[in-house]
TrEMBL record:
It comes from Emericellopsis cladophorae. Residues 199-236, 264-297, 340-372, 390-469 are annotated as: Disordered. InterPro entries: TPR-like_helical_dom_sf (IPR011990), TPR_rpt (IPR019734). This is Uncharacterized protein. The lineage of its organism: Eukaryota, Fungi, Dikarya, Ascomycota, Pezizomycotina. Residues 435-469 have a biased composition (Basic and acidic residues).
Amino acid sequence: MAPTPAAVTGLLRQSAQYHLDNANYDNALFFAERLVAHDAKTSEGPYLLATSHLRLRDYRSAYDISRAAALRGGHLGCTWVFAQACLSLEKFQEGIVTLERSKSSWSYKVNVGKHSPTTRAANPDASVMLCLLGKMYRASDDSKRAAACFEHALKLNPLMWDAFTILCDMGVSVRTPAAFKGSEQLLQSLGQELSAVNESKENGAPTDAHARRGLSRHATAPAAIADPFGPSSTADDDVEMTAAPSNGLLSKIQAARLRIANGPTAEASHGSHDDVLVPRGQEPPRAPARRTRAAQGVMDASLEPPPRVNYRVGARRIREQEKEEQTRAVVDAVYQEMDPANGPERQRSAIPGVERKRTVSGHPVPRPANAEELVPRRSGRLNTFRPTAKANSTATNTAQPAARELKKARPQISRIVRPGSSGSNVGRVVSGNRKPVDDRGDDHHSEQPRVRDVSHAAPPQKHDESDTTKVEEALRMVLDLLKKLGAAYYHLSKYESDVALQALSSLPAVHQGAPSVLALMGRAHFEQGSYLEAETLFRKVRDKAPSRLVDLEVYSTVLWHLKKEKDLAFLAHQLIESSWESHQAWCVLGNSWSLAKDHDQALRCFKRATQLSPNFAYAWTLQGHEHHDNEEFDKAITAYRKALSADKRHYNAYYGLGRVQLRLGAFDKALTHFRTAAELNPYNAVLVCCVGKALEKLKQIAPAVTAYSKAVELAPQAAQMRYMKARGLLFMGETELAHRELMVLKDLAPEEGTVHFLLGTMYRNMEKRQEAVRHFTIALALDPKAGPKIKDAIERFEYDDPMQDSMIE
């Protein structure tokens, strides 16, 4: 019989999706091409084919294949693939138009809960599409619409971490607690899989791999040996029941086994047949019901009877009110099952094995005349068990008065070993695959059915409530973690390093040791100028994640500032060997050559880094620094501007432009660039000091001193900034304030000649010739190169301009 085209289409589609999920993109491409060739009308074919090209980074092919379906708007997956290809190919406007047109087909329900080890959503939800649209708008320099898209994506799904980080990188003011705020829709989405599992259990459908395998074994016997790696604890029973002759009782037993196997503990029933799972803090479970002789005849001889619990112990634990309620429920269930329409055969099949004892000769003991009137149907008693019953335990019980039915069964003890009993009534083994059926003792307790529970709705509700609470607690914990990490990232993007470090220190210890968190801490210390602490943290990152490349350019800059040439060269050697085509490796190598004063080699490395990643703003900035050191100011300006085109908030590029303009004598432009950089990073003392330098060059001494004072507050241990402040105060005639700053400065840099030169100038203005000459002499001893200027200052006590006293040109 020839296969139907639909079956072939389904198989090809599944094969392509299978290989996509397992990262076999070449195989996925092959089967996607076969699918398109077999059924050109299906929309899944172009989607899978374009997705395969996209995963293989063949963006042009993905763009061409998905374009028609994306423009028609018939398949949301094709629209997503097309937009991704447009983003990679820098066709931003085309991607924006396509995404805007497809908004009507977006699903505004969060699909997070649909993604699990066994299930996933077919198409992206609205939060994913909004995030992609925001990236398009950001790449096309439409920051306002980009921020709106990212904000909307976060409102729909607070787990969109990249939407939050991009907002921070754009400089948008974000309220972190509001960004990571849970919603009822998100909670419902996370509970979708749980709800589906519970519903399938209530409907009797198999929900796990064990139950599905059990159904397949009942369908055909060879299916039991199809999987050599599957569990085999119940395979023998299932196959034996399938191969046994079919009769009414056997079919009922088999149906009961299937219903029990599909309960909440179906998976547990495939493990041990003897252990009964008892939830902590609850009553011990009632024993499963015994099997009948007819059922036992088709069972595996190796299976032991289920254990029984002492009824006297269980009876003492049940409250009187619970007894009355369960008594009424059991009586109602018994009378509902006593339906004459079911026929005598069905009722006879429910008579328990204890009334079918055999004599020594092997003949069954006669039943009482009224047995069929009091015994409920087997299916009715099966429904009274809680789902914790074993899947291979057949429920056969006798019906006694309701008050006795609520008592728990005593543990199974053979009459052979029971004290004070005789073995005359022990069940005789009639065939090799049966085990003896032992007596229970007195008549009152031997015929009691082990009714676990009559209520069907209460246990699932408790189970659902418990699982929902777990989901809520898990969501709350994850959102709290995101709030702390988000606060740290946000404050670091604002260069508020102290607040960022506090937020990171509030994380749990397991997360504080993660490489990404350690890298954030290292960046925070780097922005503070604490290079030693930053180096320690980045070393830990390298130890824990040797192949991690993110933020290594910052680590190399830390080593550059610490003048650790050997460590920097070794790091560059490691990265070039392991990650030859990464822009971070070439950036690190460029810093190594720069520290070695080989600016041409450094420029080659930085150019290679920008070739590998044209939007790598830091490499453009470092390239501009090298041009500045080579006094190639035009090339430096070009490099800095390219850095700003890649990242408009890259303050290092504004700082470089200010340095170039300062060297060219364009003090107004230099002041503009320095102020822009200081606005982006107001906590960087170097940038604030550069603003003061530009103001000083423009003869604006008072504002310059204000800038120097702010820089000193940001970096109290920075001698250069305190020196600039003291010099400005001295020029303004603030001798006392200048003297105070210089005393602190002398302790910070006692071996610095410029400090003693400025002290001599101050004492000269205060007409303390002896102190002035002493400090001028110290300055001359510390800096012999400045000898002519120092001698000239000593000779011209009365005619010097204070602003000419600087040893720095």
